[in-house]
Fold each of these.
Amino acid sequence: MDEKIDVGYDWESRERKKKRPYGLVALLMVLLLIGGTFLWSYNSIVTLSEQVHSAQSQIESNVQRKADLLPNLVKTVKAYARHEEKVFKEVARLRAEAVPGAHGAGIGKTAALDGQLNGTIVRLFAVAENYPDLKASEEFLQLQSQIEGAENRINITRMHYNDAVRAYNASIRRIPGRWIAEMMGWKPAQYFEVETSAKRPLKLEI
Amino acid sequence: MRTILWILFPALILIATACDDGKTQNSSQGDGRNIGAKLRQEKILVDDATLIGDRPRLLKGFYEANQALKKDFDIDFRVVTVQNEKDLDRFANRTFQQLQKESRSRSGKALLLVIDPVKDQVRLEVSQALEPVYTDAFVSYLERKGMVPYFRDGKVIDGIWMMLELIRDRAFEAKAGKEFVEPMPSRSIGAGARTEAKLGQKDPDAKAGPQVHAESTQTPAQIMRKYMQVLKSHNKNPDLEIYSKATREFFRHWTVTEINQNNEVKFLGPCLDRQKTIYTPDRAHAVNLVLPLDENRKCSPYFFVKEEGKWRLDIASMAQSLRFNQTMDWHFDLAKRLEGEGIYYAQAFDGYTFDHNGYPFRPDAKDRKPDDARWGFKCKGWYRPGDPTKMARCWIAGVWRGSPAEVRMGLEPYDYIYAVGEGADQKKNASWKDFTDYMAAVPSGEIATVVVERYRKGEQYPYRVIRRGIAP
């Protein structure tokens, strides 16, 4: 045992004091790391959530675009097929159900609206099959191309939306994302599922 | 050691020189790369379905038009052919995103044409930046009316080129109307249109239309009005009586689309009432044109020939010699202007000269031929080695602008006169006197023929050209 020279200091307590700062710094670093991770995760989830909202609004916009084409299509088909009253009554009923529109409706309602629109359009095109002059008219062909365009945009933006949802849902299932989501009350986003009856692509080839 | 270095050093120099020569040879071989390879390398034309083949002239034209579209409007237009793709719309979008990772456009303006010959589908994918200009309905219209008619005739590259021209026309309008949006990243969210390609499927109505008769009492102006009705009614019958025989043969093989006819109505309409008919002295040919030519560049001339006592449109001759620029101003193809029936129609352009691109304009008064000159050329003398003194020959030192020598015969400075006349009456090694006497003696309305010699730069021996024109 080394002899300690008494110079008025308490060596043991001085040596103990020398160890404490390192522990504190390490603790602070760990806390910073955890805090930083949480902050980064939080920001990440927010970004992914915004991407979901942005993709959703694109879908809603394209579904609304398709809905806006419907009156012209009805008018064009009616000009050639005035006596198909039963069909137009059915179409009017379907349109009435679709009245609320797509903007801000939520993805589930948007998907349902899209399905209803598809049903109406398919019905009208079935009528057009019986009228060759209608099918060959430039007005009808242009409407057909616009509707196909809207449908294609819906398909593409749906892919982007579902990709965004997948990334968002995965982020709030991982750690620490799931804890952050529980604290903030964030729920998983809904995928844009195509309705069973409309799972076949909308074929508009005449 | 020193000895070894003295041996090795020159050897190293020789080896390095040989390597350089190799590099030079390789780079000169690289310059000869064909246009198809260039299109593939730049991924402008990706022909996975080997649909387009190798047609150098058309591919070159397509490449130049594509570069012009990029340069003038910053539009990146590409073509991909694919075989038996299950979902062409998704394939087009995916391929678009991949190709646009290295976009040729700085402002996000891009178009991708995808053709699937097995599924017989064609789709034009439009970037977000171009959606306001190329709407879905408009793209569908261009495909159906502008491109598919060529596909039906089996002319794939012609159809693609026509599509590019139609895209360019629309871009021109959009630029003038300030319809282009601010630059943005190049991406597509599914805009565009898909149509059946109908490759090789002959359209039974492609050459359909009622007959339109020409009466012997009708003037060229009246025939023009009938032609206008043909265009408006989209009558594509090639055997109309208002067409000359050569024109009927031309239209039997030429793809006519409704868009072509609509464009012609658009440009002919404002010109029709202002056209004046100029007849040749023998009254066998005529030209309808709007004067003055240099102030009416959008009103192209129309040629007529009298066959079986009736005036008929000679569109075949027009297709041979007339060209149109990007703004639909007409001009001559100077190399073809006086070929075939062109020598008869040339008389209608007396008093006009042409720039090097074939655009007509009125020369300044000081450049016009004196009234007492018949043809309007200036000769200077030259001798072949060994020629006697009296055997001075003529070389054309100049032609008065707008003179018959220039307009009707196409005589040019540095034409060395070799022979005059043709057939049994041809006189070779014609002297100055032979030439001037001949040109003075050709009766008005008859064809004068001279053979001239011209020298290409750096070449020792001349090549010969036949110049023919209707004598004034």
Amino acid sequence: MAEHPGTVARAGWAVRSWWLITGMWVRSTMAYRASFAISLAANTLITFLDFAVLLLMFSHTRQLAGWTLAETGFLYGTSSVALGAANVLVGSVGGLGERVRSGSLDTMLIRPAPALAQLAAERFSLRRLGRLVQAFAVLGWSLTALDVHWSWDRVLMVPVLLLCGTVIFCALFVGCSCVQFWWGDAAELQNAVTYGGATVLQYPPTVFARELVAGTVFGVPLAFVNWLPALHVLGRSDPLGLPVAFRFASPLAAALCVLAAGLAWRAGLRAYRSTGS
Amino acid sequence: MGGVYLSVARGAFRRYSTYRAATLAGTVTNTVFGVILASTMLALWRARPGLGGYDAAQAVTYIWISQGLLVTVAVWGGGFQDDLQARFRSGDIAVDLYRPVDFQGWWLATDLGRAGYQLLTRGALPMLAGAALFDLVLPADPLVWAEFLLSVALAVVVSFGLRFLATLTGFWLHESEGVRAAMTVVSMFFSGMLLPLALFPGLLGDLARVLPFSAMVQLPTDVLLRRRTGTGLLALYGFQLAWGAALLAIGRAGQALAVRRVVVQGG
């Protein structure tokens, strides 16, 4: 750390910038308080329709690929909380391509605040909290409905899982949006990984082909968000038969994801040529 | 007069055909979601073979057809909606109202042009990927495909009618983003995009079948899976036409009300 005396200070400044810009957008939202209250309530209620699909599937069967509704609800809740939290924190980076195209990224680069923090906080929408409220409600319900012996390690596993899952999704949001430095209108690729990934994780791993499950362990490390730790919490066997250590490897996977996303961001920023130059 | 709308539609078709990277990226996304949803359907049908009158192969085919329709019919919203919302914000909407062509007709023409391009790319390509990865049951008879195309065209009109109404709220709210987000979720659910409507129980099922959203995904897939033939098929077209006409008429009335409220920036 000796040659980078400012690393901690720089990270602190990035967080503070994010916080200040976010606060600005929140104040602007709160100028129309009633409109915000209505749209948050509507958003929360409406995201329940998403969970209703799962309920409808389970109204026709007691088990889906060997998993019960409560167990699937646990997967749904954890996956949605992680995605929802990441979306609140850094979801706006998906707008990168538009900024590259219009040239407004330049404005961000010359401001005395980290560009990534500015981009992540840009057009911060409190409405996104609606999804998070719904996800926590489903998770809370599943925790009471689960038939699990709650030993201390399992209890501790849940917050760690949510934290690591959020970090992994944040890294995926940032990492995938870097593609837009080169490929301006490919914003949808990011959706395939983030929203597609979250949808995969809402269902039991036994639903999917083994190749796909293996891809989420060794390719895009989605399985570390909830599938692998959930095996420990729910006391289930691994469909891939991986060593037990994998169930506890989420913090390591999250750290690697952050490293990869950081490198992708730096490479993208270095390759960036402003519009018109 | 009709020539104007035809060239507007052709222009929209060409415009969307220039977004090549977006088309490719979107096709990948549709294919990813197709694989996910088809896998969940297979798991459900393994537990309950013959559920809702579909066998497992038909249920998987249903998912791939619906993925092909997602962007073509704009179940997710978008298309002309993005342009129109931006024009509300910038005030360019005043220019649109001055044009010597019909406002609603102009935007409907652009949306049909967009849908035509997206049917050929984001409709067909994920279906081909689905056919390569899963066992699909698709008809060999070209007549059934023609019947399907007609149903898709009507689906686009119904979808346009709904999105036009959602966008019109921008005249009053200045910001139709919230309304749009709400409509996206409702139409994803009630169109049959996530689950065939035959799996909805009792009253919910009855409700889903009479709402206009079913005309967007459930009904075109019914045509291609040959669940509705003969008079049943005619009734299906009648349902789509009735909703399409009703929504366009409501949109027209709403537009007449809204135009009186227009206050252009600076004036």
